Structures are given as structure tokens and as C-alpha cells.
Write a sequence for this structure.
């Protein structure tokens, strides 16, 4: 999969996001194009309050409502990346005794980066410097923990190209897009740790815990 999805800084893949079937209004497309880069998409997401409700709204709804959860932020980022010329890719970070994390991923000069919305400080943007998806997933490991301080990241999925859901109008539908989350639950995930490693894991220290909780929203 990695060898088939290639994006360079000099030449981005051709996008179909501006076709009449895209569903975004002209003003919405202009707003998304103004984000210009993956880092610009991340800045936009960082400015949105974290959505604590159990919802799965389309990128168009996120753009209008100006709030996003992890799932909604990752899918929004994939749509925004599509508008500026990248394939709309996401992958899933799977955890034990914790929630999964949905991340939009992109490739620049054969290296992976990520855009994400999170209620924790370190589970957001990644520069495109990772040679493999495993490297990218492992970059989240040390700051991926639950409220008991347990390190919880265990597996990651292969990239999912959201073009597969175009027939369901995933970018602009008024209906919930739980079908994307369901797909992520159904596909295989690759282990990051051996069982012996899991048994030796320590809890995060209080300094790391406090740092990751900066800006954390509670119900």
C-alpha cells in the first residue's frame, strides 16, 4: 500500500475533489484551499474546540459547526488534504483500555506525516519525516495513555483511502458517517508490541501526564 501512494513536495497527485460531485460549496472549497498545506489543516483543527459529544459528522458539518472530535477531525483532515491535492487517507491507531485514534496521513518525498485532532497535546500533527507507517504509529506511543496513566497504544491499520466512500458522500452528507468508523473496526490491524513488551510497560510520569493534559476538555 505504501508503494502505491506516493506524494512529493514538487508534484502532488491529481485530485478529483473539485468535481461537481464533491458536494462542497464554492465558498467552502475556497476556505479549504486557503489552508494550503497539511500544517495549515492542522492549525485549523487546533483552533476548533474538541467535540465531546458522541457524533460522527461529515467534514462539511465540521466546517460549519466549528468543532470536531478525534474521528471527525481525522476525517475532516483527509477531506481538506484532498482539496489541496493529496489522497484522502486515514489510518487507525488501536488501543487497549482506551479509545482508538483516527489520523489523516500524507506523504511527502517518500516520508509519512499526519494531521489529527486530539484532546491530548501530543497526539496531533506529525511532520513528514517517517519512513514507514510503523515509524509513524510508534511516534505516538509514548504520549498515548489513558487517564490512569497506562500506555495503551497496541496496533495500527493500513491506510484507508476514503475515495472508497465517495458513493456515500462522506465529505458532505448531513447523515452520520459511522460507516467509516465501522470499516476501521473491521479491517486488520498490525501489532506494535510483543506480549513480553506489554508486560514490562510502565505508567507515564506525572510531568508527562500534566503536559499532555494542557487544554484537555472535560464533560
Amino acid at each position: 500500500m505504501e508503494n502505491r501512494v506516493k506524494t512529493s513536495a514538487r508534484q502532488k497527485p491529481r485530485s478529483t475533489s473539485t468535481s461537481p460531485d464533491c458536494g462542497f460549496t464554492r465558498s467552502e472549497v475556497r476556505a479549504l484551499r486557503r489552508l494550503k498545506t497539511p500544517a495549515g489543516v492542522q492549525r485549523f483543527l487546533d483552533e476548533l474546540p474538541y467535540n465531546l459529544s458522541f457524533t460522527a459528522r461529515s467534514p462539511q458539518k465540521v466546517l460549519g459547526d466549528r468543532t470536531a472530535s478525534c474521528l471527525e477531525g481525522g476525517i475532516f483532515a483527509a477531506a481538506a488534504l484532498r482539496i489541496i491535492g493529496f489522497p484522502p487517507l486515514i489510518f487507525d491507531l488501536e488501543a487497549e483500555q482506551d479509545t482508538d485514534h483516527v489520523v489523516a496521513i500524507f506523504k511527502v518525498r517518500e516520508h509519512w506525516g499526519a494531521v489529527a485532532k486530539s484532546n491530548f497535546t501530543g497526539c496531533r500533527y506529525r511532520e513528514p519525516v517517517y519512513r514507514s507507517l510503523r515509524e509513524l504509529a510508534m511516534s505516538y506511543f509514548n504520549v498515548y495513555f489513558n487517564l490512569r496513566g497506562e500506555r495503551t497504544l497496541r496496533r495500527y491499520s493500513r491506510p484507508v483511502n476514503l475515495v472508497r466512500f465517495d458513493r456515500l458522500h462522506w465529505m458532505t452528507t448531513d447523515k452520520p458517517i459511522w460507516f467509516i468508523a465501522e470499516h476501521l473496526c473491521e479491517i486488520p490491524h498490525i501489532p506494535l508490541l510483543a506480549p513480553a513488551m506489554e508486560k514490562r510497560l510502565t505508567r507515564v510520569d506525572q510531568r508527562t501526564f500534566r503536559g499532555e493534559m494542557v487544554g484537555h476538555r472535560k464533560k
